[in-house]
Design a protein that fits this description.
Largest sheet: 4 strands, mixed
Order of helices and strands: EHEEHEHHH
Structural class: alpha+beta
Mean pLDDT: 85
Oligomer: single chain
Number of strands: 4
Length: 128
């Protein structure tokens, strides 16, 4: 199976039948996309039908982003497509709390290095 990366207008992507109806675009998520962009490409079929990344696509559309990175994956029918959707959604794993704490601490240290006294824990918490 070959997967390639392309960049397209989010408006070119077809949603198709989706099982997740609530994409929950909270302000924090939208702000992170505004500030850092979409960090993980969405996944589409060669016909630009969305496989994975509904929230990212919805954010790109809401923020009127001109283009979005996509991974193009061949699918062999609806069964393969639906399996990919399920796998994408059930196998996402957040950082363990200790790993997350270490990462946040390191970001705080780097903020203090970069901003000096303006790089406080409160500022780090606000950004995160």
């Amino acid at each position: 199976m070959s997967i390639k990366q392309i960049v397209v207008s989010p408006r070119e992507i077809v949603l198709g039948t989706r099982f997740r109806v609530d994409v929950e675009l909270d302000e924090e998520f939208l702000e992170s996309v505004k500030e850092k962009g979409i960090l993980t490409p969405i996944t589409v079929t060669p016909d630009l039908i969305l496989i994975a990344g509904g929230r990212r696509l919805a954010a790109a559309l809401q923020l009127d982003l001109p283009e979005i990175a996509c991974l193009v994956r061949e699918v062999s029918g609806e069964l393969d497509l639906r399996e990919c959707v399920l796998i994408e959604n059930i196998h996402r794993k957040d950082l363990k709390w200790l790993d997350r704490a270490k990462l946040v601490n390191r970001i705080n240290e780097l903020m203090q290095d970069k901003y000096g006294t303006r790089g406080s824990q409160t500022r780090t918490a606000e950004i995160l």
